[in-house]
User: Fold this.
Amino acid sequence: MTAGRGRPVIFDRAAQTEFLRLVADGTRIGEAADKLGVSRRTPTLLASRDRQFAQRLADAKARGREARHAPDRLKHGDPATYNNHKCRCPRCTAAATTARAKHRHDTAQHDGPDRTAHIHPLPVPQPHTATTKFAVLADVS
Assistant:
């Protein structure tokens, strides 16, 4: 390859190593790609072509998942952990399910079965013909 020709490589070995380090530390793939200034698809496409990088990425994702779900980092069993931190462990999933059911129950009791909907009438559209359009455009009455 001749120097100076084509687009310079952005996701080189150093960037790949930094990307994998960020993912292993618990950063999500999209956020890690944003920090390095590459598209979120760039590492995914590289992983589909390079088996070695794919294995390193899978290992980094596993370590990152453990880091994100460490007991000292997240409050497990809290619906906010499920919603905001995307933790899908059984405790957080059960807490979010219970919170959703409670919210639905409270909303149903608050609205009540006898609540009537407010209907706002819409104006009836007037038919337009070629002559009415020309009359409007010409401002002829």
